[in-house]
Amino acid sequence: MNAPAVRISAAVKRYGDITAVNGLDLEVAPGTFLGLLGPNGAGKSTTMRMLTGQTRADSGEVEVLGCRLPAESRAARAMTGVVPQHDNLDEELTVRQNLEVFARFAQLPKERRGPAVDRALAATRLTDRARHTTEGLSGGMRRRLLLARGIINDPRLLLLDEPTVGLDPQVRQEMWDVIGDMRSAGTTVVMTTHYIEEAERLVDEVAVVFAGRVVTRGAPAALLREHAGEQAAEYEGTAARRAEVEALAARAGLPSRRTGLSVSVLRAETMPADLRDLLGTPDVLRRTTLEDVFVLLTGELFQ
Ligand SMILES: Nc1ncnc2c1ncn2[C@@H]1O[C@H](COP(=O)(O)OP(=O)(O)OP(=O)(O)O)[C@@H](O)[C@H]1O
């Protein structure tokens, strides 16, 4: 059997008094596209940094493509692509030169560098920008260039930390299209993102991280089934009305969550007739989403 692309076991990472990662376990099978979701400060970026070798776990085990970190981090790095959350492109270089520098860093033999740069440009739809300096690129193009840089070594594992953060919806969609192509090509991808709804359409599996651990894990459809059911009924109203809806749902054993000025009662397809009568016609009846699951789980844990 193939070794897992990622294996983290009982990892702990502390920064002074803060425990950023607290006994985290995570295994990712080759070819899987995994989304790491979690509220701010949950430990996602620290987990990513442990996988890239930028941070060393205080205890526990971290393995990437069969290489134990930190001892074999050089070998792991050669097979891994990294797209960091923060833009650190070289402003003075052209798009192509930025990639050439990375092809050298990645220790590609000289004769393979040109083709690798061409392939990365094509994969991220930047070929016609190759001669432009980085300075003049739009936010979306800069993100795609960061991605191009991350795949210069044709990695078996791609680590994406918030690849679409700060981009407007149309440009995010372009980025998702490019990332979707990587997925189709069979690359293992581990990605953190706050755009849960968008991730839901792309990922094979989701791991929800909270307080430095994975609190739930599974395919989006399975997580929906397990935690939120099929339908959400939304009831709008005053704060008192919302509190009443929550209390009635809880009494019937149905989960609920706040959605702006409404309360969404989940598993609405199983709502008993007497509760349906009490609550009246919902203002909105919709399919449940991964965001419902996320808010439900992390909200419960916050309490
Ligand atoms: N270098 C560091 N020094 C001190 N504390 C740190 C450092 N890196 C992370 N932390 C702390 O560790 C915790 C986890 O941070 P981390 O960045 O991993 O969370 P995250 O899930 O990526 O959050 P976000 O979604 O906001 O990026 C936070 O409390 C953070 O303040």
Automatic annotation (TrEMBL):
The keyword ATP-binding applies. InterPro entries: AAA+_ATPase, ABC_transporter-like_ATP-bd, ABC_transporter-like_CS, ABC_transporter_ATP-binding, P-loop_NTPase. Pfam families: ABC_tran. The keyword Nucleotidyltransferase does not apply. It is found in: Cell membrane. SUPFAM superfamilies: P-loop containing nucleoside triphosphate hydrolases (SSF52540). PROSITE patterns: ABC_TRANSPORTER_1 (PS00211), ABC_TRANSPORTER_2 (PS50893). It is a peripheral membrane protein. Keywords: Antibiotic resistance, ATP-binding, Nucleotide-binding, Transport. One of its GO terms (molecular function) is ATP binding. Residues 6-236 form the ABC transporter domain. Its main location: membrane. PANTHER family: ABC TRANSPORTER ATP-BINDING PROTEIN, ABC TRANSPORTER ATP-BINDING PROTEIN NATA. Belongs to the ABC transporter superfamily. This is ATP-binding cassette domain-containing protein. It comes from Streptomyces polychromogenes. The lineage of its organism: Bacteria, Bacillati, Actinomycetota, Actinomycetes, Kitasatosporales.
